[in-house]
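Comment on the following before class.
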Amino acid sequence: MSTLEQQLRKLADKTLASELGGGAERIAKQHSAGKMTARERIDTLLDPGSFIELDRFVTHRCTDFEMASQKILGDGVVTGYGKVNGKIVYVFSQDFTVFGGSLSGAHASKICKVMDLALKTGCPLIGLNDSGGARIQEGVESLGGYAEIFWRNVQSSGVIPQISVILGPCAGGAVYSPAMTDFVFMVEGSSYLFVTGPDVIKTVTHEEVTKEVLGGAETHAEKSGVTHFVYPSEKTCIEGVRRLLSLIPHNNLDALGATVSADPVDRDCLNISKIMPDTSAKPYDMRLVISDCVDDGEFLEVQPEYAKNIIVGFSRLGGRTIGVVGNQPAHLAGCLDISASMKAARFVRFCDAFNIPLVTFVDVPGFLPGVAQEYGGIIKHGAKLLYAFSEATVPKLTVITRKAYGGAYDVMSSKHIRADFNFAYPTAEIAVMGPEGAINILYRKELAEAEKKEKLQEERSRLLEQYKETFANPYKAAELGYIDEVIKPEDTRRRLAMCLEALEGKREKRPSRKHGNIPL
């Protein structure tokens, strides 16, 4: 056998050893838990045959605690690049079969290398997380590795999309990298995110809680808002990542071209009038309005279980990707509260960073009142959404479907904070407050006199109609130029599509500065 043949055999043996990770027994254990291996996840994510692996033979450098005799090729993470929908992405996939996927200095260096390459080449970064946290045997070196990752997350923010897929445990310092990425995906029953686990909590605070209740997918989808998408299995979760990537740009300079849609851009929206109730007090589902306007009714909602009083997500209109924000009258009457403001603000800022036009559907009676909201900081949190819309320079289109009251009217991408085109349906009510509250203030004396004469109900009805005729409609705002056009609901799709086309070359300069100071 020639020297070359010997070396080729050695390469083949090492390659095979690297692909076995922690060995057949641990792979079987991973499968028995209903989880894929690190490499199987990459194969599911990427286009077939497109993966190019980097640093296959890297091992850790630790010699303490008898670690010198426990070296496994790859050191618990598979890294490289490949294609999703024909476009290059960079990926790392932690291998729980090797040291529980724990992060060492070498493990972190591998991740940092693909993060650097993703940023330099303007490609999305996808992290498939399945790790027990920092490798204790390495001490501060593993902590330093996390900090290097965190720093790169910040440098990449707003430049390339960063996506974290949680496919197992993610605890301690490991949670902060996903928290700084743009989107977090989790799987029901097998994904966990928490800073301190149940055992530590029991020791310190004497609270007893399960992993699922503390940091499972449902908890983060409904209560904390940490996760954006939850799926029933790893396969559907990873398919969800592919769908998201098909809708968003490759980087902040990428001109995301329009796709071809069979849905006529000038068709009527025939369902909106049927969806909208006859009276302003009745709820309806804003998702149905959105679906009637966008291409083929397809809408990828982000954080659907968190802050349900506001809807955010991605769709296409005339083949162009758009970011959609909408109040949800079916939940808390569509009020803005702390959670809804933060949810929408983060989404608006992502869209602005990646040049995705924003379409906003408004039906908001105001900010949610209450001591809990005030003590919780609704003033500063509501200001986040105001800041985000004001800061955004992408094309901004707004449709007021029904209520737009008080300061919430201003916040929801109004003309005053530089929305480009603002429309309203004839059913729109644009005013400082609702008619009931308004007449109680404006006509206090008249109502008191009517009560003395036992004609209160008659006078109240008259004043309500008078107020509605004067203020609770879109025409006063249209007279002032705050509404560009009062449109029929069936015209919504074609009007929005025409505006997107007209705004394709939009350029808007802002004052020169290092950065603004968003009210955090």
